[in-house]
Design goal:
Length: 76
């Protein structure tokens, strides 16, 4: 799998899922209402996704350049 796809998958899919289920698990053990905890964590994930989308669009070119340099260095 290409490095860019792995980075995208990690930041856009895995991190929000880990945060969501981790937050729900902690709230469950504390005895809090899970529906309120789910709404809270989904709001935080939405803000995270918006900010990450902006950052991703700004640094995509630099990421491509870094991957290209790394591939050139590994082929030598």
């Amino acid at each position: 799998m290409k490095p860019k796809k792995l980075i995208y998958l990690a930041f856009h899919v895995l991190t929000p899922c880990v945060y969501f289920f981790g937050h729900l698990t902690i709230q469950y053990f504390r005895g809090n209402n899970l529906m309120e905890a789910a709404v809270d964590s989904l709001c935080i994930i939405a803000i995270y996704s918006i900010l990450l989308g902006i950052i991703w669009s700004l640094f995509t070119d630099k990421l491509d350049q870094a991957i290209k340099v790394d591939e050139e260095n590994n082929s030598v």
